[in-house]
Amino acid sequence: MASLRAQPREDVSGIVRVDGITYTNVAIHLKGVATFRPVDDQPSLTLNFSKLNPTQRFLGLRKIHLNNGKEDQSFLCEALAAEMFAKAKLPVARVALARTVLNGRDLGPYVAIEGFTEDFLGRYFSNTKGNLYDSGFRRDITAQLEKLSGKESDDWADLKKLAAAGATPDLEERWTALGRVLDVDSFARYLAMQVITANWDGYAMFRNNYRVYHDPVSDRIVFIPHGMDQTFARPTMPLLPPRWDGLLAGQYMETRQGRELYQKQIGLLFASTYHAEALAKRVDVLAARVRPILAERGEALVVQHDRLVAVLRSRILQRGEFLALQLAAR
User: Fold this and answer.
1) Is 175:182 a contact under the CB 8 Å cutoff?
2) 8 A C-beta contact, residue 162 and residue 181
3) I need a labelling partner for 120 at 20 to 30 A (CA). Which of 54, 57, 191, 326 fits?
């Protein structure tokens, strides 16, 4: 605890207990930017079960994150968005709800998120030895992104190729160049889902909260969503945002082929993933898991949470109506 107070992002060894099972020598550190809180408050945590004990796994996973919900006190947006991205056949971390107790101190409900490790990559890619990068806070593909894993070179050559392709001046040549280094179909779905879920805090609109993986088999880059706790907050976000803040998003959408793929995927994915009434019911199912945890901490927290859940449900329904009107008017 003293170490986490002094150097919160440096790993310490700890014990984790889940449903009566004890995991020892787990590497633990604090995480988050806007959600960062000191260890004596309600910290967001990363638990790495295999870093100090290579054979140890938690339900088959090397690493999980525990998010404190400070930017989404409904604790529901990340799980809802992840389920939608999965339906869109995009690589996305699995999400669950968890009650967190730290040294006997009940911290209440947390959002548990699968770590971005080879375990995660193995669910989507046949070769998990490619470079996986973390965007950090508001950094684009032209930056020296943190390499999370991979057996390929450490010189960002794969990202440099992608950046060079996106910067090709001639738009027809740009599309051809992008097709050599980027999974252009997956990227169209990725951008479409960012907009459908109104994820203003993601790569497309805010150059934030994403991972990129270089798939050695296809030799192409794939974008992976991360940090989706701000989804659905802007129900009237247009189908074509006034500005694509992510450099590659703007370059992609400048091409005729990119726009056409995006427009096609918006329609298809809205039809397949955005069933507003079903999403609203899913909100209630997930909220029912949070409510008992809050109830033990005070009735006022339950009332506040019910209010937040009602707002989220309303925004989801409103977003569905808005998207349907925008699509009908195309």
Assistant:
1) no
2) yes
3) 191
Cross-strand bridge partners of residue 13: 27
Residue 140, classed as helix, strand or coil, is: coil
Q: In the structure encoding, which two tokens stand for residue 230, read together?
A: 């701000």
Please give the model's pTM, rounded to 2 decimal places.
0.95
For tokens 């009735």, name the residue. 299
Long-range (24+ apart) CB contacts under 8 A made by 179-184 are 180/219, 180/220, 181/219, 181/220, 181/221, 182/220, 182/221, 182/248, 182/252, 183/215, 183/218, 183/220, 183/221, 183/222, 184/252, 184/257, 184/258, 184/261
Q: Which two tokens stand for residue 236?
A: 């009237």
For residue 255, the 8-state DSSP code is: S
183, 218 contact by CB (below 8 A): yes
- Per-residue pLDDT of 158-179, as tens digits, reads 999 999 999 999 999 999 999 9
What are φ and ψ of residue 88, in 5° steps? -80, 5
Sort 307 into a burial class: Cβ within 10 Å, 0-12 / 13-18 / 19+.
Answer: exposed
Asked if 279 and 235 count as a contact pair (C-beta separation under 8 A), the reply is: no
